[in-house]
Backbone:
């Protein structure tokens, strides 16, 4: 019997196979440029997943995730360009900086909920944006920092570096896949169930003994970790960091992407990010106002599919399987002697 679970697993397997084969498959049928676009989609999908973790599973709408993305970028850029660090220490510095600032800001932010929480996350993002712009000797301000990539590893004559397009692609794929796997494990764990309970009703969650403040802070720091990893990857991907990525409009775009993809779903951020980045790449070369198309699509999805594209797909899949099962049962009854 075909079930939604079986179909979903088959589609996931096909998706994974496509990602693995993409560096060879895409150049054979399209321009090789699209391999880099897929790598960029994976990075932004991880960033969108950090926003989705907070709202989709905890009920906290953050417009300040760009702050932790920016710290991930600058940790890498400053670590390499200023401190002379190699790849892994710079990567670690970027992620550590994002997690540390997420912990500090989260201590204050998670005491609030609803629009108060959204406002304070924007405020934190703006504070550090203006700070990054003002200390231009360190951050480069709006101009940013360019740096030369160190190798990821070097063993004898074998060197792995982001200058190799295929190595860069598979490093990003492995890192993003690991982060999504860890997020999936957290969501399925007792911790994830506790976060969903807080999202649904924080008063009842507190009455059954859950520490609402502590659990929200843990989720906030985890979201900062995901944003920091994506920011560090983006710095390596672009060999660049800029204060512009601290600005809250970066977070707003991500909120739009995961709303369209599907709130509270693991693959919603991937679907939404893929849709909008592909539209950007296809349309922007012919029309500078491609954001209008994105806006119209977002409005239509919110009106026609409130649960996002992934939610719409899941509902349609359940209905189709139920209809197929009912048809099969009627056929069996008719064929019985």
Residues:
């Amino acid at each position: 019997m075909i079930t939604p679970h079986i179909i979903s697993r088959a589609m996931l397997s096909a998706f994974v196979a496509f990602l693995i084969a993409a560096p060879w498959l895409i150049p054979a049928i399209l321009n090789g440029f699209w391999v880099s676009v897929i790598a960029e989609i994976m990075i932004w999908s991880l960033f969108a997943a950090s926003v989705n973790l907070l709202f989709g599973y905890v009920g906290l709408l953050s417009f300040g995730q760009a702050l932790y993305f920016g710290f991930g970028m600058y940790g890498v850029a400053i670590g390499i360009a200023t401190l002379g660090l190699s790849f892994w220490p710079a990567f670690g510095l970027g992620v550590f900086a994002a997690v540390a600032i997420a912990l500090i800001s989260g201590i204050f932010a998670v005491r609030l909920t609803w629009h108060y929480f959204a406002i304070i996350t924007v405020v934190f993002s703006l504070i550090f944006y203006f700070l990054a712009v003002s200390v231009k000797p360190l951050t480069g301000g709006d101009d940013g920092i360019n740096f030369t990539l160190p190798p990821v590893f070097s063993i004898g004559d074998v060197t792995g570096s982001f200058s190799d397009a295929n190595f860069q692609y598979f490093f990003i794929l492995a890192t993003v896949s690991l982060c999504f796997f860890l997020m999936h494990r957290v969501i399925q764990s007792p911790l994830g169930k506790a976060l969903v309970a807080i999202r649904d009703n924080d008063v009842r969650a507190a009455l059954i003994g859950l520490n609402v403040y502590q659990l929200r802070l843990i989720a906030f720091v985890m979201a900062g970790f995901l944003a920091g990893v994506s920011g560090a990857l983006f710095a390596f991907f672009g060999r660049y960091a800029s204060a512009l990525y601290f600005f809250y409009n970066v977070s707003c775009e991500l909120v739009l992407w995961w709303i369209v993809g599907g709130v509270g779903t693991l693959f919603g951020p991937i679907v939404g990010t893929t849709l909008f980045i592909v539209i950007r790449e296809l349309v922007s070369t012919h029309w500078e106002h491609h954001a209008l198309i994105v806006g119209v699509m977002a409005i239509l999805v919110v009106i026609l599919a409130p649960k996002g594209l992934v939610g719409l797909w899941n509902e349609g899949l359940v209905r189709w399987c139920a209809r197929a099962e009912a048809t099969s049962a009627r056929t069996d009854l008719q064929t019985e002697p």
Notes: The chain has one domain: 4-335. The mean pLDDT is 84. The first strand starts at residue 145 and ends at 146.
